[in-house]
Amino acid sequence: MKALITGASSGIGRDMARYLAAAGWDLILVARREDRLKELKSELSAVSVRTIVTDVGSAECCRELYAMTKDDGVDMLINNAGFGLAGEFSATDLDVELNMIDVNIRALHILTKLFLRGFIARDSGVILNVASSAGFMPGPLLSTYYATKNYVLRLTEAIYEELRRRGSRVKVSALCPGPVNTEFNDVAKVRFAVKGISSEDCARIAIEGALKGKLIIVPSGMLKVGLFFKHFVSEKQLLKLAYSFQRKKNEK
């Protein structure tokens, strides 16, 4: 079995690679940081590891990545690459946000579509899209990031139903974690108001859920409770709560 993981050089992507390697999966690891990929490849020497240095924020690079790997027998695609940016929408950097949309949405969209067609043709394969608990909510003070994760979640759900209707054995899942202890916090310039789960636990739960064909994977019991109770407040109340929560996360 072979998996392709974007954003594999750190955080959840790196720990997914470790978990799959321990289970005997061969890997194609994709990221921008060559030194980190080389280090991870050396660590995972018990399995076959191919590293590809590219920036999935470029649509052309995404198409090239698919062309380079489409005949490699990929059984699982993990769209993990992504980042966030905190601040009021009127003040955050437009170019950074447009790059975020390219990485969080466009890259995932391109790779999902291209690999999905091949998976459908052979009636097997797994796609795991890394969304976030942000995908269930509005996100004042982290607005663009939340919007991108809403896209990821809803796209994945729609594909899931299309596959179900056609009786396909292809599996597609959305990972929707809450706080996870990774480098994301530093890049987005936020600190979590509640304790996050470990990246290792998140990776394990995500892979196990995706292989079982679970549509939405929420790796925290407390988060599941919170998502349940959000249905009992109005949209405006939810916005107020989300704003207060995000403000506590933002660095002072």
Describe the structure.
This protein is an alpha/beta fold and 252 residues long. The protein has one domain: 3-Layer(aba) Sandwich (Rossmann fold). The chain is 50% helix and 14% strand. It is built from nine helices and nine strands. The protein has helices at residues 11-22, 34-43, 59-69, 94-122, 143-165, 184-188, 199-211, 221-229, 235-249, and strands spanning 2-6, 26-31, 49-53, 76-79, 126-130, 171-175, 180-181, 197-198, 216-217. The strands form two sheets. The chain has a seven-stranded parallel β-sheet with strand order 3-2-1-4-5-6-9, sandwiched between helices. Strands 7-8 form a two-stranded parallel ribbon. Helix 1 packs across helix 7 and helix 4 (94-122) packs parallel to helix 5. Residues 188-193 have low confidence and may be disordered.
Helices and strands in order, then pairings?
Layout: E1 2-6, H1 11-22, E2 26-31, H2 34-43, E3 49-53, H3 59-69, E4 76-79, H4 94-122, E5 126-130, H5 143-165, E6 171-175, E7 180-181, H6 184-188, E8 197-198, H7 199-211, E9 216-217, H8 221-229, H9 235-249
Parallel strand pairs: 1-2, 1-4, 2-3, 4-5, 5-6, 6-9, 7-8
Helix pairs in contact: 1-7, 3-4, 4-5
CATH superfamily: NAD(P)-binding Rossmann-like Domain
Strand fraction: 5-15%
Task: Kindly report how far apart the N and C termini lie.
Answer: 46 Å
Could you list the spans in which at least 5 consecutive residues all have pLDDT below 50?
Answer: 188-193
Instruction: State the share of residues found in helices, binned by percent.
Output: 40-55%
What is the name of the CATH topology?
Rossmann fold
Shape: globular
Going by helix content, strand content and strand pairing, the class is alpha/beta
Number of strands: 9
